[in-house]
Amino acid sequence: MAIQARNAISCCRFLSMLLRSNSKFIRLSAASYSSTTAAASSSSSTPAAAPKIPQSSKKGRLLTGATLGLIIAGGAYVSTVDEATFCGWLFSATKLVNPFFALLDPEVAHRLGVSAASRGWVPREKRPDHGILQLEVWGRKFSNPIGLAAGFDKNAEAVEGLLGLGFGFVEVGSVTPVPQEGNPKPRIFRLPKEGATINRCGFNSEGIVVVAKRLGAQHGKRKLQETSSTSSPSSEEVKLGGKAGPGILGVNLGKNKTSEDAAADYVQGVHTLSQYADYLVINISSPNTPGLRQLQGRKQLKDIVKKVQAARDEMQWGEEGPPPLLVKIAPDLSRQDLEDIAAVALALHVDGLIISNTTVSRPGPVSLNPVAQEAGGLSGQPLFHLSTSILQEMYILTRGKITLIGCGGVSR
Q1: Is the CB of residue 154 less than 8 Å from the CB of residue 179?
Q2: What predicted TM-score, i.e. pTM, was given to this entire model?
Q3: How far apart (Å, rounded) are the C-alpha atoms in residues 45 and 225?
Q4: CA-to-CA distance for 198 and 24, rounded, in angstroms?
Q5: If you count DSSP H runs as helices and E runs as strands, how many of each does the chain have, helices first?
Q6: Lowest-pLDDT range, 5-19, 74-88, 116-130?
Q7: What angle do CA 275, 280, 286 make, to 5 degrees?
Q8: CA-CA-CA-CA torsion sign (107, 182, 159, 131)
Q9: In 337-376, which positions are buried (b, 16+ CB within 10 angstroms) versus exposed (e)?
Q10: Catalytic status, residue 286
């Protein structure tokens, strides 16, 4: 097994390092002993007594031996453990690290998490998903229905590492045409008792050019691996996943804060990033960009969707066709707003709706928390009932004809 091989190699390297350092210690001791005996023989003609081995040397050798024994025994045991069990150990071990992240500033912790995933410093799920979890949507086969929403990996830095955690799909973004810093810091706040966070990041993004380069490099790497692979996977394995490899990749598009033409921003995102996406998302529901949620009105939404669909369809596509186009909506909508969105989605054959983004409301006990006074969108467990009720409403209004993705409050 791959994990067993890697463990064996790491064990051997560590043993080699210990042995090299131990041999240096032995050589140094021998040299000291020779110089000591030579000095003794020159100063006296009487036979020199055999030197005593220092007590510290005996303890050092015992400690080294015990360490080597533990490493060998541990390596031997791990080599007998199946891959799934070892994978479970790794994920359980991450619980020991979580309290450390809780001590850090929320945005610093976030950056460390993205950085770790981008470098492969996170566990990799080796246990296959049960077949009952697989589903096919838009002609794309998902290994499981649990995905990572946009907002975590905003700049597509860690797609491979995040999919490796076991997600069926990962959505990067929101990505804006031009790089922008977002709102001033601090802009992320924890509500640990409520299992929630408030953020007002404001589409902080490195821009579509940087993200396109990253996704292009990842896409090229995967294609190279596929062409150089000597194995011949089954047809079932070939169908599973998408452009990012074993999982499905979504790209969430946003508009720049200072842009006066929202539709043009989304069209630019489509032209630059759609070739790397298994699906595209128009984000018109973030509460942290002034005027963005006004785009959810019937007339504005219809205009944007038409222009984005036209931009996507005018591009050349292979057999799989263009990526599906979804719209992400807010949970803070009136019944009339929901009816308008449903009408536009049905009339223009939108491929899906993501329900929902963060909420500006502070439901239940959240309102009693002093942190709740911070401006921004609330996410986490308190959002679950609100987003689920909107999900139910939209299913009824769209008559079950449009794919819906539930988002908000998903935990454990």
Answers
A1: no
A2: 0.77
A3: 75
A4: 56
A5: 12, 12
A6: 5-19
A7: 140
A8: positive
A9: bbebbbebbeebebbbbbbbbbbbbbbeebeebeebebeb
A10: yes
